Each structure stands twice: as C-alpha cells, then as structure tokens.
Amino acid sequence: MRLLKMNNFTKRTVSGIGFLAIMLAALLTNQYVFGAVMLLALIIMMKEFLRMTCGKDYKFSQMLSIFAGATLFVLIFLYRAINIPGRLVILAFVPVFILMINSLYVKDKSRFDKFSNLYAALLYIAVPWSVQNFAVFNAEGHFNGTYLLCFFAIIWGSDIGAYVFGVTLGQKYGKKLFPSISPKKSWVGFWGGMLTAILVAVILNLAGIFRLGLLHSISMAVLLDVAGVYGDLIESQWKRHYNVKDSGNAIPGHGGLLDRFDSALIAIPIGIIYLVTWDALLL
Question: Residue 280 in contact with residue 216, Cβ under 8 Å?
C-alpha cells in the first residue's frame, strides 16, 4: 500500500513538473510556442468536455465543434500576433454555422438534447480561452506572457491555499461553501485561498514581475480568486451532473486539462477586463 502511494506521489510529481515546464515555455518563450501549446490545450479541453457530456454520440458533430473553437482561437491569435484585419475574426462564425446546419442531417435524433453541449463547449471553453491572446500581445503585435503568467500564478496559488486551509481547518471549522455542488469546499478554504492569492500578487509586484500598482495587484488577486472559485464550481457542477470524477487523464495523477484550467476559464477573462478597464493593457 505504501509503495502504491509512493508511486502515485511520484507520478503526480513528475507529471506536475512536466505540466509546469510546458506552461512556462508557452508563456516565456515566444508567440509560436504560446500559440501551439494553448491551441492544443483548447482542443484537449473541448474534447474532454464533449466526451463527458456527449459520450460517443454525434462524433462528427463533436469534431465540428472542436474545429469551430480552434478556428476562433487561431483567428484571434493572428489578429493580435501579426495584425490581420480584425474583421476577419468574423470568419470564426463559418464553422459554427456549418455545425448548426449539420444538425439537420443527423439521422438519429433520439439524443438530440446533447447537441446543446456542442454549443456550450464553444461558449464555456473556446471563447474565454481565446481571449487570452489579448493579454499577451500589445497593439504592435509584440509578445509578452508576463501578465498571463502572473494570472496563472495567482490562480494556482489560490487553489493551493484553499486546499491547504480547507484540509487542515475547513473540514472541522466553519460552514461549507457550496455543499450542493462541491461538498468538500469550505469558507475557511475560500478565505485561505484569497489570502494566498493576495500574497502571491504582492510578491510578484514587489519582485517587479507583476507591473501594476500594489493596490491594483491586490485588487486583481481578489478578482481572480473569486472568479476562479466560480470557475471551479461551474466545472464541478458539470462533473456532478454527469457523475464523473475527472474530466480526463491528460495529466497523470492530476486528471484532465479541464480540471486544471477550470478556474482560469472564468478568472482570466475577468482579469483582462480589469486591465482593459483601467487602461493597463495596450490594445
């Protein structure tokens, strides 16, 4: 039993380090590595979501949905990276229309209710994931992944803090955060996660990495923490409905990519909106 636990710990550690290395390469290397890694992540997340919600039904339509999401990401990437005309982004609607028309020709409509999940995948995953491009390119198309790196650091710091405080104190003291969806989450874990998120943001700011004012950095941490918790709960609700533990097994010992990025799908667009609102990001 102890050997099994050690093997699981080793597997989680190695895969976690590998995952972190890939993310750092995507955010700190260049725009092409960023685009390739994030596009692959988008495809995997949409595949995990559709496998969870649609199963083996409508396989071709699932591929069309993933293609539509990938098209949106690529067009926004090209718009930000090499300044293709912004009006060309509207071409992302073409595969969506093809997906809609395809629904008319599906012979077996006994589970047609599942078709709604093909559109949900686009709104839930493809749209917010594609928005990341606005955080890493300036108006001239120059790539800088520092803001996005700080976002992920704060989000994952919040997750770690929430887990540590929740496991050590949350199960004994205080009320549950959202027992109908995620019974293990507690208010103690929530506040612990927020404290950790603020601490990470302050450290990044003092180190000169998160180049916002200290007050803005703290405000950003609070927003990312709250949005990230909602993102986590939203995915938990999907998994609870379909009675699955993990969205996939893309990261051995950690589950699927959707499990790792569920918080980011809500938090990152909120962070970008904050930056745009305060004119801290050159668009």
Answer: yes
pLDDT for residue 179: 82
Hey, what amino acid is at 278? W
Tally of CA atoms within 13 A in the half-sphere of 34 that contains its CB? 26
Ordered by start, the domain boundaries in the chain are: 31-140, 143-283
Tabulate helix, strand, coil % of the chain (nearest 5). 75, 5, 20
Spatial distance between the Cα atoms of 150 and 93, rounded to a whole number of angstroms: 32
User: Whole-structure pTM over 0.85, yes or no?
Assistant: yes
User: 228: Cβ–Cβ under 8 A, 6 or more apart, which residues?
Assistant: 155, 158, 159, 263, 264, 266, 267
Spans of the chain, pLDDT less than 70: 1-9, 170, 279-283
Tell me, what's the pLDDT at 278? 74
The answer to whether residues 213 and 202 touch, using CB atoms and an 8 Å cutoff, is: no
Q: Which helix (H) or strand (E) holds 263?
A: helix 257-277
